[in-house]
């Protein structure tokens, strides 16, 4: 049985199929949105792409990127 996710959540994420796992912090923005802050800067994150969340080999979920922040780490 799936357990509800508790926020904030530190996990790994990918925005590209063959990308190495990227550490991130996921926080709840509202009932149907989260904010993702990567541990290190990410390149070319674009609205419309998917971000997929992992706990080692287990997929925790995914979502469509609606906005991408510029700067030290994308959100």
Instruction: Show unreliable segments.
Output: none
The tally of helices reads 0
Task: Report the principal-axis shape.
Answer: globular
CATH architecture: Beta Barrel
Structural class, please?
A: mainly beta
Order of helices and strands: EEEEE
Commentary on this structure:
The protein has 75 residues and is an all-beta fold. The protein has one domain (9-64): Beta Barrel (Elongation Factor Tu (Ef-tu), domain 3). Helix content is 0%, strand content 45%. The chain is built from no helices and five strands. It has strands spanning 9-14, 22-30, 33-38, 50-55, 58-64. The protein has a five-stranded antiparallel sheet, with no helix packed on it. A hairpin with a 2-residue loop joins β2 and β3 (33-38).
Helices and strands, with pairings:
Layout: E1 9-14, E2 22-30, E3 33-38, E4 50-55, E5 58-64
Antiparallel strand pairs: 1-2, 1-4, 2-3, 4-5
Key structural traits:
single chain, Elongation Factor Tu (Ef-tu), domain 3, five-stranded antiparallel β-sheet, globular
Short description, anyone?
It is built from no helices and five strands. It is mainly β.
